[in-house]
Sequence to fold (417 residues):
Amino acid sequence: MSHSFPYKIKAIKVSQPFGDFFITSLPANLLLEVTYPDPLRIIGQFDKEGIYPMAGIQRKDSLKRLSEIGKFIDSVEAVFPTPVILAANYNRDGYVEENPDLRWKVSKLDDGTFEIEIPTQAQLASIVDGQHRLLAFSRAEQSERKEMELACSIFFDLPNPYQAYLFATVNFNQRKVSKSLAFELYGFDTEEESPEAWTPDKTAVFLCRKLNTDSASPFYHRVIVSAQEDKLLFSDGENPSWRVSTATVVEGILRLFSRAPKDDRALMFKKTLSDGRSRTELSDDGTPLRNLFLQTNDLVIYEIIKNYFLAVQEVFWANATGRSYIIKTVGIQALFEILRDLAKEALEKKIVKKDFFKERIASASAIDFSDNFFQASGQGRVRIRNAIKRAANLIADVDLPENDREQYLRFLNTERH
Fold:
């Protein structure tokens, strides 16, 4: 049976300390279309402690196990009561999928339940746990069994290190797994190794946590481990103060010092911790804070991010209403993109104080980001970014999209040159 898209299914929201997720059931053959596994891969030799470097999230597929489960699926006793765990909206490159036409969506219904929409066949859900269970359906001889529904727990926009932590947590309780190996592999527990050995995504998660827990940070208590679709998942009643997902902040930080985090991680994991795994194995990729990252200068990276957003807080957030897109996901994404330009300039001038960033963006303070021109979409993010960049003289009028130029100039109160 083939499935038509968009595919919609009702779901129940579950809130736990780790974050929110959604429980539903999906046909196995649909899951085989729209999900992908990221199996563990050994990429080095055992060291004296029995630890070996690996890449990926799940265990490598066992052909024997797949065959055994496939036979079980064909049996009259086939049953899988435990859920397959999925992380929606992360692509194979390790980044959040930003195309709204491809992203899985969730919306709240009048009866208090939720509806999940899978818009296309694009593989945009990583299998965090249950890959053998699911992949075995491709080995089932009875074709109708592939239509069997499987329970699913779906997390939205869950960053890779959190996916790995979730996998490790689930499997610690099911079978013997070396905790030191899991945390070394997945890069979640930053206290288990020196900062020099942190991968870019681990560093980004660490800095995100610090932004969320530092009382002097403009993101203090505003970062949640939940879906990027905060406008759909959280009503004003549930969240009186605006917040932003971990995925959005980690993604923004990560792009400051890594163009290809998965490639960086794979390269670093060619060495174990005991063999001297280090960021210095990586080369400069042209991102603005790459050299600081390679030098393990995380404190300076943090100060740059914090000081920039302190300036953002004073210039944009202080007077922003709940309708303003500058405090929505698209606004935070655009602001991180602006930082990529200003961070380079700040380092060249050797000035990373809040006042420097405030002076550079102050000319955009009068822009009304609650206007419908700045919509909650990828296009809206681009418009917010362009408006601020034009006001800050990072681009000229001629660099603005011609079709929207008059709109931009209306907000910027400038004249066409």
Observations:
- Confidence is low (pLDDT under 50) at residues 41-59, 172-188, 226-240.
